[in-house]
Amino acid sequence: MPSWSSGSGRLDDLDRAIIACLQLNGRATWQQIAAVAGASESTVSRRANRLLANRVVCVSAVPDPARCGLGTPVLMQVECAVGATTAVAGVLAMRSDVRFLALLTGSHDLVLEVVVGSRAHLADVLVDQLRSIPGITHTSTETVVRNFKTSYDWSRGLLGDRAALLERPPAPGGGRVTLDATDLQMVQILAADGRTSMSEVAARVGIGEAAARRRLDVLTSSGALWFATFVDPQAMGFQTEMFLWLGVDFARLEEVAAELARHPEVRYLSATAGYSDLACELVLRDLDDLYRFNTEVLGSLPGIRRVEMGQELQIAKRGFLTSSTVLPDIAPYVPR
Fold first, then answer.
1. pLDDT at position 93, please?
2. What does DSSP assign to residue 81?
3. Residue 264: partners with Cβ closer than 8 Å, 6 or more residues away
4. Which of 201, 230, 244, 249 has a CA between 20 and 30 Å from the CA of residue 271?
């Protein structure tokens, strides 16, 4: 069965428009999407349900572990012995605490994000667990200090000005949100299928629909939970995905981060402590688009001292979803 990361979907312009709408608002109604995509509601519903059923696209609820008080993201770069990269990636992808994993060109063979519940958990991963995986020759680690952007609407340009009809106001953010057992159960259900109706969610967790909606509103309005739509960028016409590590003068860090975050091709951007000062992920049309970004965007920003980049050859895991797993695991959200 095709999955969101398979790259096997043959999509036409309407399919891509529907997916771009879902990336802007994964829980939008088919009527709302039809108005933006320029097709009838019945056509949009039929097309979208086929894409979802075939796992060409996947809508999933993604909690912010730090804001929920459930863990701290840590980025790791891994170098592997010749011929061992695929096997190592397979082992790492099976870990419930790995949220993101990609195979790369460049200095590192793999980049991954691990959500750790404590320093003891991180020490156990670095000192004992990674050492036990055959094929790993070297690792480097950096703590995510602040996330500036995690975006899944990089295809919004396909919709033109119509994209504004589906835009949601940014979450104001705030402090930590405490999740109880019912919240965690709701997160699990919506992580598996972000378009599950609230009546079904309420029935499965054993509360009223109004109460379920209130709980979800608290989580989404605080930025503790958002809905992401996953699709293979190549199927959408975006051929180049890059991961960047930037060395930046601290006096310019906020300025550089703010400028990078406003670009739609920047999917992920965080301040880090360790290997780099900023970690950045890009989704681009092609290598010409990468050249434009390097020269016109990175080249124009004062304060950047070093840029290291690797092209993402394959995404093994994103948002706790692998290409062969359709049910994310929320085990890493339990502090260790």
1. 95
2. -
3. 151, 153, 154, 156, 157
4. 230
CA angle 335, 271, 288 (to 5 degrees): 125
Q: What is the pLDDT of residues 282-296, one digit of tens each?
A: 999 999 999 999 999
Question: In degrees rounded to 5, what are phi and psi of residue 164?
Answer: -60, -25
Q: Which two tokens stand for residue 256?
A: 């550089």
- Cα(141)–Cα(309) distance, rounded to whole angstroms? 16
Residue type, 246: L
Give the Cα separation of 6 and 316 in Å (integer). Answer: 10
Give the integer Cα–Cα distance in Å for 73 and 66: 8
Whole-angstrom Cα Rg for the chain: 20
- pLDDT (tens digit, 9 = 90+) per residue, 127-184? 899 989 999 999 999 999 999 999 888 999 999 999 999 987 766 666 678 899 999 9
Query: Helices 41-53 & 13-24, crossing angle to 10 degrees?
Result: 80
Would you state the structure tokens that stand for residue 93, as one six-digit string?
């992808």
State how far the Cα of 48 lies from the Cα of 39, in Å rounded to an integer.
12
What length is written for the chain? 336
Contact assessment for residue 298 and residue 307, using Cβ atoms and an 8 Å cutoff: yes
304-318 and 321-322 beta bridge pairing: antiparallel
* pLDDT for residue 328: 41
Q: Mean pLDDT by 10-residue block, N- to C-terminus, for the chain (336 residues)?
A: 48 96 96 96 97 94 85 95 96 94 96 93 92 94 93 92 84 76 95 96 97 95 90 94 98 97 96 96 97 97 97 92 49 34
Contact by Cβ (8 Å): 283, 233: yes
The 10 Å CB-count burial string (b at 16+, else e) for 4-29 is bbbbebebeeebbbbbbbbbbbbbbe
Q: Tell me the sheet residues that pair with 315.
A: 102
Q: And the tokens for 102?
A: 């990609």
Under 8 Å CB-to-CB from 35, ≥6 apart: which residues? 165
- Identify the burial level of 251 via C-beta atoms within 10 angstroms of its C-beta, where 0-12 means exposed, 13-18 middle and 19 or more buried: exposed
Q: Which of 70, 20, 104, 82 is nearest to 279 (CA)?
A: 104
